[in-house]
């Protein structure tokens, strides 16, 4: 019991609930072991369950092409700054990707699955197409 919080404002966060979940997760037989979906519904985990987070689209893949160039510290700073600016234009304050309909071609209308920056060495546009 020393490893689990002694008191909590939520009655589901008890040592007994934690032990119950662990015992179900540590079952050797996979047919008898708790599933991920069942674990998410367990009282000890369900306190933090956020359906939008669990069923969110997979994260975007990183484009390693930009790593093939030698950049100075200043160039990296510029690339990172531009990447942040694109992210801020294409995501809301909660990190959810905005969708853009129609368009005037502004930077804020970068397609949903694409992030761009300018390579500081060659001046070419680097697209992290995802």
TrEMBL record:
Cofactors: Mg(2+)
Region (Disordered): 98-130
Recorded GO CC terms: cytoplasm
SUPFAM superfamilies, sorted: Protein kinase-like (PK-like)
A single GO molecular function term of this UniProt record: ATP binding
UniProt-listed Gene3D superfamilies: Phosphorylase Kinase, domain 1, Transferase(Phosphotransferase) domain 1
Enzyme Commission numbers on file: 2.7.11.24
Subcellular location: Cytoplasm
Biased composition (Polar residues): 107-130
Alphabetic keyword roster: ATP-binding, Kinase, Magnesium, Nucleotide-binding, Phosphoprotein, Serine/threonine-protein kinase, Transferase
Substrates-to-products reaction catalysed: L-threonyl-[protein] + ATP = O-phospho-L-threonyl-[protein] + ADP + H(+); L-seryl-[protein] + ATP = O-phospho-L-seryl-[protein] + ADP + H(+)
Location of the Protein kinase domain: 1-45
Family listed: Belongs to the protein kinase superfamily. CMGC Ser/Thr protein kinase family. MAP kinase subfamily.
Function comment: Responds to activation by environmental stress and pro-inflammatory cytokines by phosphorylating a number of transcription factors, and thus regulates transcriptional activity.
Protein name, UniProt field: Stress-activated protein kinase JNK
Organism of this sequence: Parascaris univalens (Nematode worm)
């Amino acid at each position: 019991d020393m490893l689990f919080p002694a008191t909590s404002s939520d009655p589901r966060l008890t040592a007994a609930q934690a032990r119950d979940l662990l015992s179900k997760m540590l079952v050797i037989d996979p047919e008898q072991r708790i599933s991920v979906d069942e674990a998410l519904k367990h009282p000890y985990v369900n306190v933090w369950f956020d359906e939008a987070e669990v069923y969110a689209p997979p994260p975007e893949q990183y484009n390693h092409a930009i790593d093939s160039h030698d950049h100075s510290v200043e160039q990296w700073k510029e690339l990172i700054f531009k990447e942040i600016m694109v992210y801020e234009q294409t995501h809301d304050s909660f990190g959810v990707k905005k969708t853009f309909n129609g368009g005037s071609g502004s930077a804020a209308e970068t397609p949903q699955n694409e992030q761009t920056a300018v390579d500081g060495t060659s001046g070419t546009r680097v697209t992290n197409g995802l």
